[in-house]
Amino acid sequence: MRFKCRMIDMAAMRDFTNIVNTVSRMSKMCVIRLTPDVLCFNIGDDRVPVVWAELSQSRFFNEYAMGGASDDQNEIYLESDTIMLARSVASLKQTAKSVKIKLTNKQQPCLTFEIELPSLSLDSRQCVHDVPVRVIPRREWCEYQAPNVPEFDISMDMPQLKHVRSMVERMKNMSPHLILEADRSGKLVLKVDNDSASIATHFRNLNVWNSSDIEEEEITASVDIKKFHTFLSWDIIHPDSVKCNILHERTVNLHLSSEGYLTIHYFMPAIAS
After folding, report:
1. Residue 52 and residue 266: Cα distance in Å, rounded?
2. Which of 89, 117, 144 finishes a domain?
3. 32 and 126 share a domain?
């Protein structure tokens, strides 16, 4: 197996750094899936998908070459420490001129980051980070496939994440659970309840993409408010579209996309009320 890529575009390096940093805040470990077309970050909870972030290699990398296990299984799966990944790309956001990322073997498999930094002299400086990884054998690949996205009872546009984040920031100190209520008119309500108060924020006239024929006028789900708040940090990549998908009292899926080069699925199981 082999993998090598290179980034020289400042915007791509900035976005890549923001993505890695956000992934590191969501989990200590992640699985990186490499294919000829995309690079994916996968976070699971007891093998149940939580985050699936898919990056188009043509948008991020000026050079990209990989060879998987075989011609008909041309993929590589690597398990990595997200904190070490975030530390390794820290200099990309503002100061780096370029970065090469390679799959190497230095007593153990590593993702090696060779970062070219500016220098006061004519010669550039190079900073090298080796991030140990576990190469996942083919027999385990089935556990890290793209998640099956169900037919939701309602799918609607989210309000701007920065507005939602400011509301949820205050709400998360009042309750561990956030109640989402959506209806076919395009109303989305975010609500918290505790023994002394009930607070709700109403967003109206949101675009509804589809809704099912279930009898409930309002589609609802209660989720972990800290997990919901964590997702809102994806606002740093300035997405073009964010959709809220709800399976009544079962699942909330937040789907983010940006100019066709980045898609993110974030799954939260509903909490029984």
Report:
1. 7
2. 144
3. yes
| 107/132 same-domain check | yes
User: Does residue 178 contact residue 170 with C-beta atoms inside 8 Å?
Assistant: no
Domain boundary among 96, 111, 144: 144
Measured CA to CA, the distance from residue 8 to residue 38 in angstroms comes to 18
Please tell me which residue, 209 or 216, carries the higher pLDDT value: 209
Q: How far apart are CA 3 and CA 103, in angstroms?
A: 5
Strand (E) or helix (H) holding 225: helix 225-231
Residues 104 and 214 in one domain: no
- Our count of domains for the chain comes to 2
All residues at 6 or more sequence positions from 117 whose CB lies less than 8 Å from its CB, including other chains: 91, 95, 96, 97, 124, 125, 126, 127
C-alpha dist (Å) from residue 257 to 11, 42, 58, 165, 200: 17, 16, 16, 18, 27
Do both 133 and 265 map to the same domain? no
Closest CA to 231 of 156, 178, 187, 193: 178
39, part of any domain:
yes
Nearest by Cα to 248 from 191, 179, 177: 179
Print the domain residue range for 85.
2-144
* DSSP reduced 3-state for 128: strand
Same domain, residue pair 65 and 117: yes
What whole-number distance in Å separates Cα of residue 213 and Cα of residue 121? 68
Which residues, listed in sequence order, are joined to residue 202 by a DSSP beta bridge? Answer: 189
**Tell me: the pLDDT tens digits for 148-158?**
888 899 999 99
Q: What is the pLDDT of residue 147?
A: 85
What is the distance between the alpha carbons of residues 168 and 124, in angstroms, rounded to a whole number?
45
Q: What does the pLDDT look like over 172-197, one tens digit per residue? A: 999 999 999 999 999 999 999 988 88
Q: Which residues contact 212 (CB under 8 A, 6 or more apart)?
A: 151, 152, 153, 154
